[in-house]
Amino acid sequence: xxxxxxxxxxxxxxxxxxxxxxxxxxxxxxxxxxxxxxxxxxxxxxxxxxxxxxxxxxxxxxxxxxxxxxxxxxxxxxxxxxxxxxxxxxxxxxxxxxxxxxxxxxxxxxxxxxxxxxxxxxxxxxxxxxxxxxxxxxxxxxxxxxxxxxxxxxxxxxxxxxxxxxxxxxxxxxxxxxxxxxxxxxxxxxxxxxxxxxxxxxxxxxxxxx
Length: 210
Fold this sequence. Notes:
Layout: H1 25-42, H2 54-69, E1 76-80, H3 85-97, E2 102-108, E3 111-112, E4 117-118, E5 143-149, H4 151-165, H5 171-184, E6 193-194
Parallel strand pairs: 1-2, 1-6, 2-5
Antiparallel strand pairs: 3-4
């Protein structure tokens, strides 16, 4: 897609300790180093989505749309931690209109940093997050808790969403729905829970998801 749009694609080798095809925190450090090198070399603009405060700020707009379109009924929000921008942007905006909204991060099993359940050397298959480290854009003051989801739970839910609801999404969208069902079965029973469906399943046709 990048090439089709006229962009130049720079591939970065994974860290020696990483599992092939599964992006780790160490991999992200290497990617950032390469991005900074390209900025110096070419004068390019570095979006830096992991630290750019425009990331959560832009998400707040969509959060207020969710609030209005739900009939102002959202009581709980949950989101998988990628950059942390979606979680913090939605949490800040929803709590600005209802301070009682409780907000949870969603994390993969074995790499659940905010849950305090990181297994050294563990990897997971949920692309786009779960780096087992603190994210600059996640405001801990917004956290009501963390929900842990396994790879298999996320995969099966994403497939179920496609078959039963016609919602064609990826791993982390499946994880968000799993997290919502876990909350509804425990501390947030009967509450109205808002989540985000992050992207389209077309990106995952070459993976074990579809």
